[in-house]
């Protein structure tokens, strides 16, 4: 048994070894098959990867060539742009030089234009006279005389023969009709608009910014259309003018609009505008923009004086700074509401005072550039005398209530060694000369008429003295002429707008106005004739 057990154990060991060998063989065959499959798959993947890499290399080469071409094109474009930029820089430099030359020529031409413009104004006469004949109106049909009521007083006797001639048919009972003609720089018939009137006024405003005082006044009998010419139509019950109808606006609002247009073409901050509104009533000056402690506007009596420089000045007069036409119209409207009016047989809203609206234009210039602003020697010397103060000093004296505005002097406070030159545009709506018998005024209105005619006579005396080149001009004979002293005579430009009523019943007053205008025309350099100015008669 021991031998059998030993043999059995040996057999068992052999069987185990055979089993192990059998298992190893089986494992070897599976691994071999798997290895073959893997090898085959790897070959396929390598082949695919090789093909992909080849295609990727070819695509990269194509894209590289394309990018290279694009880079070359961009470089060439940059080179062309650099060359073009250099050419543009050369052209820009040439243009800058040309612009500088053109600017210099423009400045010279501008100075020549100023000189020629002022020469033209002087050739036309520093005092120019235009005449406007209003149309016949319904109130002209009312009989104005107690004598000879059979005559047709609404008959038209004054005509515009042409744009420079007034024809007046003068007739008396039992006498042949006589035609008289009067020559003026411009004559407007009863159909010409406010636009046509202002078109001939506008050139004067250029002289204002050239350093000259300018005055535009309407002269004529009561009811002849002075206020309409200067302001425009008025609203019922109110002295404010109807600004809705721009085509009907008068000289005062249009002139202000033109002044602001001219200023807008200048460097910002180099000009600012102040406004004052006064009336001369019974030979007294009233400030129509003065306010009481509650801020309410009421007329305050002022006085006019002559400064040491020989200029007229109204101490404590209210000056309001304005930046546009709307602000100006608002102030003038407030002043007009205080203007004295009184109904007469000739006009229901007859103005009993002279209205003077003054725009003071302050020009700010550097001291070094002062001479170049006005190259005319006489103008420069005259303005240098007026601009003897520095800018900060004047700022402390400025009485404007709107000093915080953009164009006010406050924003220029830091600028030193600057000079300012003031010029005035005085727009005057004179009270009408009238015949007492025609207007039918009595009492206080009669006293007003007396003062009106005296002041108009004083104005005639001043123009007569200037025409005769007298050594003394009687500006102080009236508060009106004293107030207008700087704008009447000398280098100032004055435009007298004669307003004529065409009806027969106004013939006497129309002839007086036409005679006044005829003499005013003779106040020109080199054309002086010694004659007396026609003035309202003592009975008027």
From TrEMBL:
Location, primary (coarse class): cytoplasm
Kinesin motor domain segment(s): 126-523
Record keyword ATP-binding present: yes
Compositionally skewed regions (Polar residues) per UniProt: 400-410
Residue ranges that the Swiss-Prot or TrEMBL entry lists as coiled coil: 92-119
Cell compartments where the protein resides: Cytoplasm, Cytoskeleton
PROSITE patterns, per the entry: KINESIN_MOTOR_2 (PS50067)
Gene3D superfamilies per the UniProt record, alphabetical: Kinesin motor domain (3.40.850.10)
BP terms from Gene Ontology: microtubule-based movement
Chain sites annotated for binding ATP: 220-227
Keywords: ATP-binding, Coiled coil, Cytoplasm, Cytoskeleton, Motor protein, Nucleotide-binding
GO CC list: microtubule cytoskeleton
Superkingdom to which the source organism belongs: Eukaryota
Keyword ATP-binding: yes
GO molecular function, one term: microtubule motor activity
A Pfam family recorded for this sequence: Kinesin
Region of interest (Disordered), ranges: 385-411
UniProt record similarity statement: Belongs to the TRAFAC class myosin-kinesin ATPase superfamily. Kinesin family.
UniProt protein name: KIF25 protein
Organism: Agelaius phoeniceus
